[in-house]
């Protein structure tokens, strides 16, 4: 008998901590940059050139976590039949954290023993394991660590359905996942629907990313003999798969045997069924398949080098290696697709245990191995079954919920109120009730209803942001009325103008905010404008004053230290560090900046004290290598060198501590 119910899971969890209240004004890096796409076809080139988002706004950074992970009870939803048990984390983006095969007790997903956050997502905080649902843009979803709305409904055949949904604020899209386990089904079905409720076209990015256990004998299977490979070399290569380098005998379909990290985007021929799987030495493991709209498949692995091992140890603990098999709408993760206004896209995915003859998938030639996987999948879940499920679930997509299980954020409800007569978000299948509007939305609701925002004390930072034409118009109207033109409304209008590409108007708004009340927030925003206009000295002065007004806000302290170092004022940065109180004084990123400033002032004693006591930076980012850079620079300076140029002999005499190696070697 298939069931759907609420439950709890007790796990060691790194607390998310307070959100960063500073608006993320700096532009997001474009991963396409100067990418060489000479080996891509015309369709891919067009998709690569479309839809890049430059700003994280209206979201803010989630960077207040630590490496401490006390036990916590997490709210989950459980779907279960006599074959599978699926468990979803409702407070963390609806992540499918566990998919267990009932008869064998086997966990099909990588389910780490702790939920450890790390700086790997758009908003910083991210964690490993399970299946993540990524909507938005390159770099994991902004909703990885945000709650989802969850409701229950029932299909005509009596099967219970778990519906999770949210309003994605960057792209202004509504998405829902209808998850269900029919009686006796060997697969968990997930019907995904992305709805564009507005008349403008919207860039769409979607990848379902499944983490699976990694051993040297675990093989990734997908029906492709070529792939697109992207690495830090800045070139999108079209390569043979799984063996693509004449000088390398490694079979890349065995991630546990490869020392470098890699992303392989499978080039599945038209007409082939869309699927991917990871099977162990016994020929068994997780499969993912879908209807044809979900075109892309990807293999990602960290590599077995020291950097890859460090990342996996941090995220999951020792000897908990994993890799990811992923599925997306586009062929690669640097592409966006155009969803027309007031239209929806949907597809069905299926997940379960694939069992094959190990002799047919290991040691076999690649075409024979993938054919064996395809045959086993066809016997388990015929392709026509997915098309039937898609038809059934498409008809059910707008059915109202029968029972509310969990509340998501209040942003969908606020946007519905802001749109007023537009009614674009009055959606019966995915309701956004007023009851979900909370503290973060209250100021904005007041702006909608009364034309003004409650004005907090100047020492208090804003708790949230809303951007876009609707909000800009409301703020412009409010600031035109002297009774409503407070430092707070001017501050938010500046954020909206800057986000809308009007830095001159933003400066005017922030200066008007400062004329009413001197705040750290306006100083900081003006400092970013000074940086962007090539005035690091003025920016550093602004940051210094902002920090004096709010010395206990860690994100502001970190930005101020960076600005002072960039302005070649490292001693001023050290003066700030010396005035900090715990716990900020010994936070990992502040210690790292202290070490940088100490090296810049020539204080090698201070730098040594930090480097040789085991520096741990809680939110170090993939591709960011400051620990190794500073280690080599310290030893170079100690040996009489002038800076970062380090000889091979010095590297051999002072090997980099393993705990400082987070670089992922790619080819």
From TrEMBL:
Q: Look up the domain of life of the source.
A: Bacteria
Q: What is this protein called?
A: DUF5107 domain-containing protein
Domain DUF5107, first and last residues per copy: 53-336
* Native source organism of the sequence: Catenulispora pinistramenti
Q: Where are the transmembrane segments?
A: none
């Amino acid at each position: 008998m298939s069931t759907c119910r609420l439950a709890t899971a007790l796990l060691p969890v790194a607390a998310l901590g307070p959100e960063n209240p500073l608006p993320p004004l700096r532009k997001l890096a474009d991963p396409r940059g100067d990418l060489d796409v000479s080996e891509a076809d015309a369709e891919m080139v067009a998709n690569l050139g479309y839809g890049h988002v430059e700003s994280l706004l209206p979201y803010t950074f989630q960077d207040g976590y630590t490496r401490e992970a006390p036990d916590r009870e997490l709210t989950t939803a459980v779907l279960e039949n006599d074959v599978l048990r699926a468990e979803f984390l409702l407070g963390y983006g609806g992540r499918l954290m566990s998919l267990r095969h009932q008869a064998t007790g086997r966990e099909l997903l990588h389910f780490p023993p702790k939920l450890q956050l790390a700086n790997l997502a758009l908003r910083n905080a991210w964690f490993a394991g399970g299946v993540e649902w990524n909507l938005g843009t390159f770099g994991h979803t902004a909703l990885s660590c945000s709650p989802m709305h969850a409701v229950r409904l029932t299909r005509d055949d009596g099967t219970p359905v778990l519906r999770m949904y949210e309003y994605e604020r960057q792209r202004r899209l509504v998405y829902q996942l209808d998850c269900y386990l029919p009686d006796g089904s060997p697969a968990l079905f997930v019907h995904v629907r992305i709805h564009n409720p507005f008349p403008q076209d919207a860039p769409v990015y979607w990848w379902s990313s499944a983490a699976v256990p990694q051993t040297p004998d675990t093989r990734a299977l997908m029906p492709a003999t070529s792939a697109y490979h992207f690495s830090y070399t800045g070139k999108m290569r079209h390569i043979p798969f799984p063996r693509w380098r004449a000088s390398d005998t490694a079979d890349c379909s065995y991630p546990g045997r490869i020392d470098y990290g890699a992303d392989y985007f499978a080039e599945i021929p038209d007409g082939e069924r869309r699927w991917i799987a990871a099977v162990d030495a016994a020929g068994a493991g997780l499969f993912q398949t879908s209807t044809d709209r979900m075109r892309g498949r990807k293999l990602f692995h960290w590599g077995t080098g020291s950097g890859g091992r460090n990342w996996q140890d941090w995220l999951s603990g020792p000897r908990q290696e994993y890799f990811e098999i992923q599925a997306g709408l586009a062929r690669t993760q640097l592409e966006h697709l155009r969803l027309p206004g007031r239209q929806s896209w949907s597809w069905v995915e299926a997940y379960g245990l694939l069992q094959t003859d190990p002799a047919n998938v290991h040691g076999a030639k690649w075409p024979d191995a993938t054919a064996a996987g395809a045959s086993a999948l066809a016997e388990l879940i015929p392709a026509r079954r997915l098309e039937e499920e898609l038809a059934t679930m498409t008809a059910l997509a707008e059915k109202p919920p029968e029972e509310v299980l969990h509340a998501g954020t209040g942003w969908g409800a606020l946007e519905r109120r802001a749109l007023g007569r537009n009614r674009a978000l009055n959606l019966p299948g995915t309701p956004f009730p007023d009851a979900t509007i909370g503290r973060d939305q209250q100021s904005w609701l007041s702006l909608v209803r009364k034309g003004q925002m409650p004005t907090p004390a100047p020492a208090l930072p804003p708790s949230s942001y809303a951007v876009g034409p609707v909000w800009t118009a409301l703020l412009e109207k409010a600031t035109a009325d002297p009774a409503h033109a407070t430092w707070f409304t001017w501050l938010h209008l500046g954020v909206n103008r800057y986000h809308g590409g009007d830095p001159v108007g933003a400066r005017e708004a922030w200066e008007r905010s400062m004329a009413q009340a001197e705040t750290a927030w306006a100083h900081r925003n003006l400092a970013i404008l000074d940086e962007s206009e090539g005035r690091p000295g003025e920016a550093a002065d602004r940051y210094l004053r902002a920090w004096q007004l709010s010395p206990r806000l860690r994100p502001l302290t970190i930005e101020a230290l960076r600005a002072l170092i960039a302005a070649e004022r490292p001693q001023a940065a050290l003066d700030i560090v010396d005035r900090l109180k715990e716990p900020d004084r010994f936070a990992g990123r502040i210690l790292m900046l202290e070490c940088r400033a100490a090296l810049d002032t020539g204080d090698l004693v201070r730098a040594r004290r930090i480097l040789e006591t085991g520096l741990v930076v809680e939110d170090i980012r993939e591709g960011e290598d400051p620990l190794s850079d500073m280690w080599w620079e310290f030893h170079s300076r100690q040996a009489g060198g002038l800076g970062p140029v380090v000889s091979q002999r010095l590297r051999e005499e002072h090997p980099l501590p393993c705990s400082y190696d987070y670089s992922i070697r790619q080819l």
